[in-house]
Amino acid sequence: MSDYLARLARAAHDVRVETLGAGARTAARLVVLDTLGAICAGSRLGENRRLAKLAAARSGRGVATLLGHVERAEPMLAALVNGTAGVALEVDEGNRWGGGHPAIHVLPAALATAEELGLGGRALIESVIAGYEVTSRLGGATRTRDNVHSHGTWGTAGAAVAVARLRGHGADDLRTVINLAVSMSPANSWTPCFEGATVRNLYPGRAGLQGVLAADALACGFTAPADAPSDVYGTILGDAFDAEAVEAGLGDGYRIERNYVKLHACCLYNHPALDAVHALRATERFAPEAVARIEVTSIPFVTRMADAAPATMLSAKFSVPWAVAAAVVLGRSDVDAFGPAALADARVRDLATRVTVQGHDGMSLRRPDGTTATVRITLTDGRVLTGATGVVRGDAANPVGWDVVTDKFYRLAAPTLGEGGAADVITLTERLDELKDVRDLTALLVPVR
Q1: b/e for 377-411, b at 16 or more Cβ within 10 A?
Q2: 3-263+401-442: CATH class
Q3: Which of 141, 156, 166, 304: CA 20 to 30 A from 439?
Q4: What are 55-96's pLDDT values in tens digits?
Q5: The pTM is what?
């Protein structure tokens, strides 16, 4: 059996609240709150409402809360529904060091299982940190193929570890469940993002479902290959898998402490340019109608996000020209900047056609320093405004305060939970490690009556 997997499984098994540093505990609470907000907001979309009703109808006796709905479901389908909702508006947290968006893959499966078992906040925190670590490290060690999307892939293993932790499995079983889960990793592409096909939103939900299934398969006695990550991620979903990278820095803090919180409701690869645009709008006086053209230079991947005429909300979230034009014209990059009214705004559509995008090989989100985007705005009077971004705002290396995170949660969750309900969720999350039963929290995550 591969040593790196044994050590990763042992590290996941050994996560204990009583030995966590203050940074890890704070990060866990922040990630849980931020992810709950994303799920509650996404639950309001029509397809997600219908998916929730379908899951409840197929569940018989539901023991897990479908966040934002009155219905309940069995844990596997609850993970599917909640994970799908949480990614739908592109406001869920992520990790630029690997794994894409670990929390939206891990938390729905962990929350549903903890609810089913009547476990407390400490167990939930431990499982989320453990699953997050596994997801981020496996993802960071994989050199993915060009069109492989981070959603749904490594998250399956993290979800499985979180569930197995909650069920009391030891380190050897965690190693096995990683191999079982990775053997079932979905193969997902970027294409639906650019075309705006919402089947893409099912990717994290399906990873959570399969994470619960992997833990069930373990209990049923199914066996796994000795080193599934090297096999699946090194030869199928990726061009290479670096087992040594999985262990690099293992035990020196947790990946959940190095996450980012999204302050723009779109793909992270838009964020460097958007930070620069918002900074220019705050310091320079110019009217949107005075903009002649905008030139954006950022990480190489943005050349795939250059469609200036996205047809749907989802494809707009993966368009640099649209995101930048909306930020200039509307002064916002929240959910509404990509909604139906914005998509119908002729001013935004016109300006988006005058935004050019180019990639720069020297720019990378994983660099500890350096520029991640430059924006050059040329005005009709000949003036040229320039701005640049390093680490995006909201990243652990450029953090925002708890008040910013709670304000984001209010805006996302209050329309579903009510202002009082949203406030109560924040209060409980702030003392999550003291919560005796997570069902006290999930009881608040339903529509206001």
Answers
A1: bbeeeeeebebbbbbbbbbbeebbeeeebbebbbe
A2: mainly alpha
A3: 156
A4: 999 998 899 999 999 999 999 999 999 999 999 999 999 999
A5: 0.97
